[in-house]
Design brief:
The longest helix has 25 residues. Helix content is 55%, strand content 20%. With 88 residues, it is α+β, with helices and mostly antiparallel strands. The protein has one domain: Arc Repressor Mutant, subunit A (Orthogonal Bundle). A 3-stranded antiparallel sheet has the order 1-3-2. A hairpin with a 2-residue loop joins strand 2 and strand 3. It has 3 helices and 3 strands; from the N terminus they run βααββα.
Length: 88
């Protein structure tokens, strides 16, 4: 599983066009961890400790379910809007 620190998470979101400040990410990380969907720990990096995060097994299952739901929603919207979807 991928392990990521908070700075890399923010950078990855920004690189994909989603600007999220720390005031948004901290409560989200906290809720996900409280619900058992995210696991955090400490690691040594550049002679300092940094907190890092990864999806738990339950978090991975939830992500897979949400992605499937997203695909169904998109397919339904495409039908409603008269667009065809090409699946590779």
């Amino acid at each position: 599983m991928n392990v990521i620190d908070r700075y890399l998470l923010r950078k990855a979101l920004e690189d994909r066009g989603l600007d999220a400040d720390e005031g948004t990410l901290y409560p989200l990380r906290s809720r996900l961890e409280h619900r058992g969907l995210l696991v955090s720990g400490w690691r040594e990096a550049d002679s300092r400790k940094e907190r890092c995060y990864r999806l738990s097994n339950d978090g991975r299952l939830m992500l897979d379910e949400l992605l499937e739901e997203w695909e169904r929603l998109n397919a339904s919207l495409d039908l409603i809007l008269g667009r065809s979807r090409f699946v590779a």
